[in-house]
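User: Predict the structure for this protein chain, please.
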Amino acid sequence: MSYKLKIGFFALFFAINLYSKSYVLENQNQILDKTADFIETLSNEVYKKTGVDLYIVALESLEGMNLQEREWFYQKNLNNPYVILFFAKKEKKIDIITTYETQTMFDKKEVYWDYIVPLIPNSDKELTQQNVSAFLLNGFMDIADRIAQFHKVELEHSFSTTNKGIEVTTKMILYLMLFVLLVLFAFVCLRRSK
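Assistant: Here is the predicted structure, written as C-alpha cells:
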C-alpha cells in the first residue's frame, strides 16, 4: 500500500512540475537566487490577477547570435499576452519585449530610463550579481506595477517603485532651487559690474 502511495505522490509531484510555469526563462548566474524566487512569486500574482505573463531573461552573453535572434529563441513558445525583460551582460543589452496586447499597458522608455538606467553601475567591474539583480528587479517591479495599474488591481507581492506625488514635489523643489540660484548669480554679477 505504501509503495502505491509513494508512486502516487511522485506522479503528482511530476505533474505539478511539468505544468508549472517558470517566469525566469533563463538566468546565467546574473541575478541572485532570492531575486529569481521573488520574480517567480510576483509574476505568478501578475498572471493570476491580469492574465499577463511577465518573464525575465538574464544572460552572460548572446553567444554569437544577434539580439533579435536570441530574443526570438525565448519568444517562440510563449502564449500572448506577455512581457519579457531581457538582459545580456557582455553585450550590455537591455530590452523590454512586449506583445501587441501589452504594448499599450505601459511606456517602455519610462521604465528603462527612470527605473533601470539610474541603477546601472558606471564600470564593468561593478556589474556584479547584486547590482544586476538590483537594476533588473527595479525595472521588473515597475513593469508589474504598471500592468497592475492598467488592469486596476493591487499586487500584494510588490512594493511601489515610485510615489508620483513625492516625485513631482521633489522635481518642483529642485527646479525652484535652480531658479533661485540663477537669479542670485545674475544679481551678484550685475552688482559686480557696476
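Residues 163-194 form one domain.
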